[in-house]
Amino acid sequence: MTRRHTVFGVILAIIGALAAVQAADLSRQQADSFAKKVAIIGQRGTSTATAIQRTTVSENEVNSWFVYRGRDVIPKGITQPKVSIIGNGRVMGVATIDLDSVSRERASGKALDMWNLVGGQVPVSVTGVLQTKGGRGQFDVQSATVSGIPVPKALLQELVSYYSRSADHPEGVRMDAPFQLPAKIQQIEVGQGQAVVIQ
Fold this sequence. Notes:
about 200 residues; alpha+beta; six-stranded antiparallel β-sheet; 5 helices; globular
């Protein structure tokens, strides 16, 4: 796994999804703080130490990182990602998604195909619960909207599949499938406004 994929994996595990906060609370210092914490988490993942380590990351640190340092990791076609860490495992997110490229690839040409009806740069919002234990995680989507209109999980899965494709995963990832947490992370406690990474 490359360093870029490790960083992206940690970020995905922490936030599970993208959501909204006030831009006034964001700063380059908080972005740098988050980047340092991700580096520490990665180093601990290669360590032979057995003591339990806890790293707290805040909602503002994650969102600051998106604004100031995350452009190289965020897939092309996704802009303005923001996260809200609600608590009790719940996270909420929003990002602007380019539906034109997805529609061109997914449309079947049939009159009632949903991909013939969507396009443009639109806000996509997701709310769900991140559950983690024993080095494994799973994200349970509770709701999703496109331009404020509720959409089925199947459409959201199409978007996730399209934007998560890679050489290792040409079909993308299943958003509801269990996954291995990276860097020897055992659990992520999602509190209000922050998450605690336990290694």
